[in-house]
C-alpha cells in the first residue's frame, strides 16, 4: 500500500533546513500540500490579498534580512499575477524563490485547469526556471534554487511544481485510474503505461539532480591593489554606494568600518540609504552632482551608472572611474571604468580598508560639507515658509 504522505513535507523540510521562517502565499488547490507541510515545520504561512504581494513581501524579506524570500502561488493566473513583482525583484537583484503550482505532468497542454506555459513566460524575468518532473527531484531542486538565488548576482528563481507531484501517491493513482476504462486491448495498454509512469513519478530511488553549493566571487588582488592606490593618492575622491553593499549582511558591518576608516566623501542610493548618518562626517546627502563633476577619483560600489547618475555624464571626464559590481553588465554600463572589479563591493571595500590609510582630502571634505550645510539650511527655510 502506498504511503499516505505528500511532497509538501519534503519541501517544508528543505526550507526549514535553510533557515526559512516564513513564506507568503495566496492559497490554491494546486499548492495546498506545501502550506500543510510548512505548518508542520512551524514555518509561518502568511496569506496576502493578491499574488503580486506574495513576491513583493518575499522581496522585502530578502532585502532586510539574511534569508532568501519565498513565495508560493497557485497555477495559471496565480503565477502570472506575480510578473510585475518578479521583474522588480530581478532589477533589485533580490534573492528569492517563487514556487508555482502547475497542471499535472500527464495533462500538460491538454486543457487542464489553469494550465499555461509558465516556463516560457518566466525565462526572461528570473535567473533560472525549473519545472520539476519527479517527486525524488523536488528537494535537491529547491536546495539548488535557494543556493542559486544568492550566488553571483542575486535574483529570483522560479520553480514549477505540477500538482501530481505534490499530493499523496494513493490519491493521484486513484484520480487517474478512475478516468481510464480497464477493458479492451488499447485501454489495457494505456492502463499499463499509466502505472509505469506513476511508478517512476513516485519512485524512491535516489535523485540524479546534483546539489550545487553557494558560489562566491574570486578576489582579484591585483585590481584591488590598483584601486587602493588610486584612492589613497586621490585629493578629491567620491564613493557612491548602491543596493549591493547591503546584500551581504555578514560583511556589512566590516564594509561600514572600512568607509569610516577611509573617510572618503560618500553618497548613497537605493537600499544603501541608512548605512550612514549625520554622525559620519564623510557622509553627504546633497549636491552629489557637484561632487562628481569635481572629483578626481569616483568609486561606484554596487551601483550602475543608470538614469540616477545621468548615465555616467555626471562624472568628471578627467576623473579615474573605478567600478565594483557583482554584475558584469553593470560594471561597464554607459561608461568604461579605468578599473573594473567583478565582485561583492562589501568584501572588496573591506579588503581595500585593510591595506590603506585615509587619503589626504580634508580640503575636499570641507568644501562638500559647506555646500551640504547650505543646502540643509535652504531646505529648512523652504519648509518653514510652507
Please tell me about this protein's structure.
The protein folds into two domains: 195 residues, 3-Layer(aba) Sandwich (Rossmann fold), CATH 3.40.50; 164 residues, Rossmann fold (3-Layer(aba) Sandwich), CATH 3.40.50.1220. Helix content is 44%, strand content 14%. The termini are far apart. The model has no long low-confidence stretch (mean pLDDT 91).
Radius of gyration: 26 Å
Fourth-tier CATH superfamily name of the largest domain: Thiamin diphosphate (ThDP)-binding fold, Pyr/PP domains
Query: What characteristic shape results from the CA principal axes?
Result: elongated
Strand content: 5-15%
Q: Give me the strand/helix succession.
A: HEHEHEHHEHEHEHHHHEHEHEEHEHH
Largest sheet, in brief, is: 6 strands, parallel
CATH topology of the largest domain: Rossmann fold
The number of helical segments is 16
Poorly predicted spans? none
Question: How far is the first residue's CA from the last residue's CA?
Answer: 77 Å
Helical fraction equals: 40-55%
| Known CATH architecture of the largest domain | 3-Layer(aba) Sandwich
Give a nutshell description of this structure.
By secondary structure, this protein is α/β, with parallel strands linked by helices.
Secondary structure topology:
Layout (H helix, E strand, L loop, with lengths): L6 H11 L4 E5 L5 H9 L3 E4 L3 H14 L4 E5 L3 H4 L2 H10 L3 E7 L15 H5 L5 E4 L6 H13 L5 E7 H4 L2 H9 L7 H17 L19 H13 L3 E5 L7 H14 L3 E3 L19 H7 L2 E5 L18 E6 L2 H4 L7 E4 L2 H11 L6 H24 L1
Helix pairs in contact: 1-2, 1-7, 3-5, 9-10, 11-15, 12-15
Amino acid at each position: 500500500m502506498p504511503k499516505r504522505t505528500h511532497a509538501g513535507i519534503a519541501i517544508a523540510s528543505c526550507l526549514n533546513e535553510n533557515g526559512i521562517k516564513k513564506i507568503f502565499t495566496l492559497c490554491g488547490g494546486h499548492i495546498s500540500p506545501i502550506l500543510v507541510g510548512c505548518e508542520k515545520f512551524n514555518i509561518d504561512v502568511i496569506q496576502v490579498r493578491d499574488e503580486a504581494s506574495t513576491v513583493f513581501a518575499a522581496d522585502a524579506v530578502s532585502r532586510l534580512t539574511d534569508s532568501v524570500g519565498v513565495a508560493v502561488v497557485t497555477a495559471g493566473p496565480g503565477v502570472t499575477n506575480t510578473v510585475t513583482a518578479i521583474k522588480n525583484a530581478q532589477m533589485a537583484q533580490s534573492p528569492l524563490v517563487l514556487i508555482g503550482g502547475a497542471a499535472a505532468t500527464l495533462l500538460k497542454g491538454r486543457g487542464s485547469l489553469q494550465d499555461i506555459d509558465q516556463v516560457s513566460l518566466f525565462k526572461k524575468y528570473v535567473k533560472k526556471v525549473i519545472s520539476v518532473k519527479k517527486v525524488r527531484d523536488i528537494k535537491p531542486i529547491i536546495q539548488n534554487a535557494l543556493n542559486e538565488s544568492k550566488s553571483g548576482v542575486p535574483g529570483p528563481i522560479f520553480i514549477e511544481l505540477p500538482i501530481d507531484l505534490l499530493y499523496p501517491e494513493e490519491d493521484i493513482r486513484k484520480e487517474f485510474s478512475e478516468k481510464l476504462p480497464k477493458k479492451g486491448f488499447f485501454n489495457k495498454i494505456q492502463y499499463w503505461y499509466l502505472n509505469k509512469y506513476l511508478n517512476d513519478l513516485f519512485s524512491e530511488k535516489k535523485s540524479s539532480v546534483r546539489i550545487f553549493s553557494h558560489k562566491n566571487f574570486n578576489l582579484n588582488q591585483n585590481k584591488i591593489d590598483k584601486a587602493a592606490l588610486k584612492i589613497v593618492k586621490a585629493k578629491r575622491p567620491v564613493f557612491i554606494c548602491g543596493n549591493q553593499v547591503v546584500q551581504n549582511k555578514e560583511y556589512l558591518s566590516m564594509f561600514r568600518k572600512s568607509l569610516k576608516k577611509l573617510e572618503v566623501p560618500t553618497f548613497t542610493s537605493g537600499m544603501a540609504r541608512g548605512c550612514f548618518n549625520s554622525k559620519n562626517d564623510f557622509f553627504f546627502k546633497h549636491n552629489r552632482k557637484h561632487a562628481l563633476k569635481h572629483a578626481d577619483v569616483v568609486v561606484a560600489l554596487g551601483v550602475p551608472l543608470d538614469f540616477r547618475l545621468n548615465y555616467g555624464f555626471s562624472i568628471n571626464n578627467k576623473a579615474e572611474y573605478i567600478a565594483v559590481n557583482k554584475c558584469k553588465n553593470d560594471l561597464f554600463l554607459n561608461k568604461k571604468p579605468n578599473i573594473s572589479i567583478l565582485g561583492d563591493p562589501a568584501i572588496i571595500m573591506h579588503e581595500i580598508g585593510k591595506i590603506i590609510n585615509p587619503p589626504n582630502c580634508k580640503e575636499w571634505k570641507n568644501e562638500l560639507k559647506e555646500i551640504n550645510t547650505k543646502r540643509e539650511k535652504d531646505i529648512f527655510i523652504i519648509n518653514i515658509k510652507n
